Amino acid sequence: MGFKSSVSKELANSFFRLKLWSQQDLIDQLFANYDKLDKEIKAELPLKQVWAVALQE
């Protein structure tokens, strides 16, 4: 996951339930939910969807 073992141990002992996201998790969630973000946030992080033809595997 990319975190030190002490972070994982501390997470188990935390009062609040936390989820640690890797860089890839963050990017995946951003792309999956970008359309749902407020206009102000989109203005701070402007992305444009690009379509491309994919080769069949």
Descriptive labels:
single chain; mainly alpha; about 55 residues
Concise account of the structure shown:
With 57 residues, this protein is mainly alpha-helical. Helices cover 46% and strands 0% of the residues.
Number of separate structural domains: 1
Mean pLDDT: 86
Q: Which structural category do the helix and sheet elements fall into?
A: mainly alpha
- Number of DSSP-assigned strands: 0
As a whole number of angstroms, the C-alpha radius of gyration is: 17 Å
- List the total number of helices: 3
Low-pLDDT residue intervals, each spanning 5 or more residues:
none
SSE series: HHH
For the sheet with most strands, the description reads: none
Distance linking N and C termini? 29 Å
Strand content: under 5%
Shape: flat
Helicity level, as a percent range? 40-55%
Characterise the protein shown here.
This protein is mainly α. It has one domain. Helix content is 46%, strand content 0%. The protein has three helices and no strands. It is flat, with a radius of gyration of 17 Å. The model has no long low-confidence stretch (mean pLDDT 86).
